[in-house]
Amino acid sequence: MKRTCLALTLLAGILPGLVRAQASVISQVAGDAAATDKFHFGLKAGFSCGRLKGLEGVERRGGANFGLQATVALSPRLSLVPEVAFVSPKGATAVPFVTTGDPALDPFFADPARSALELGYVDVPVQVRWRLGRFHVGAGGYAGFLVSAREKFRAERPDGEDLLFQRDVKDRFRRADFGLLLEASWTITKPRRGAGLVFHVRWQEGLAEVLEDYSGPLDDLSGGKVRTSGVQVFLTFPFVR
Questions:
Q1: How far apart are the C-alpha atoms of 211 and 225, rounded to whole Å?
Q2: 8 A C-beta contact, residue 101 and residue 84
Q3: Which pLDDT belongs to residue 114?
Q4: Which residue stretches of the chain have pLDDT < 70?
């Protein structure tokens, strides 16, 4: 938690200057209409913490998330907010180990605390957001597209050598995920033309089964449909001239 707070504080200091520079670039490329209070883009950066519902005995997996969003004003208080999250980590940790294929190495990977199932998605959320002063609430849905899926197991030999065993399991997961989202946000800095540095907390709940034709250490943990679920904490700053 301390690391997350520190990282968000650093982002809060870096994002405004970075985005102001990018606002000028966007307005030159797409025109001034793409950086106004009626329609503008924004930069998103923060952290995700999620789990795979339907699996017993595994732990949550966290990671950084990053993306871009657009805000389309439908009225003075209501906005449509589509987004692309280029980095959206999901998965689980404390995954049971099966075998490397080398009996001499297998005992070193027995500790599940150093294992992870890393699922990488590009998420495309769309929400309707309602503004109440500096406070905002939003609801909508998202579609996720799987770009990577790996099982990683780390270990250390008695001589101090670090070991890593990993395998690609992308073909054992479905390519698409979808679900619902709820969000609450607060404008931290003084709004400029109705926008400012914003702190968000978002809950996402997957509705789709993510396993396709899986065979591996999760076989004995699945009690039915396996779905993604997670919480995101992030900052956004708009490209507004």
A1: 8
A2: no
A3: 86
A4: 1-35, 191-195, 213-223, 240-241
The residues pairing with 66 across neighbouring beta strands, listed in sequence order, are 45, 87
How many angstroms separate the Cα of 223 from the Cα of each of 52, 57, 171, 189, 217? 12, 11, 21, 46, 13
Q: What pLDDT does 24 receive?
A: 46
Per-residue confidence (pLDDT) for residue 19, from 0 to 100: 47
43 within 8 A of 25, measured Cβ to Cβ: no
**Domain housing 196:** 2-238
The pLDDT value given to residue 26: 47
Q: Which amino acid is at 119?
A: L
Beta strands in the chain (DSSP E): 39-55, 61-73, 78-93, 115-132, 135-156, 162-168, 176-187, 198-206, 222-238
Task: Give the count of domains, the chain.
Answer: 1
CB neighbour list of residue 119: distance below 8 Å, 6 or more residues apart: 89, 90, 91, 146, 148, 149, 173, 210, 228
Q: Is the dihedral of CA 16, 17, 18, 22 positive or negative?
A: positive
* CB 96 within 8 Å of CB 112: yes
Handedness of CA 121, 124, 127, 132 (dihedral sign): positive
Which 3 state secondary structure label does DSSP give 26?
helix
What is the C-alpha separation between 33 and 39, in angstroms, rounded?
7
Does the pTM surpass 0.85? The reply is no
Q: What is the CATH number of the domain that holds 47?
A: 2.40.160.20
What is the residue-averaged pLDDT of the chain?
A: 83
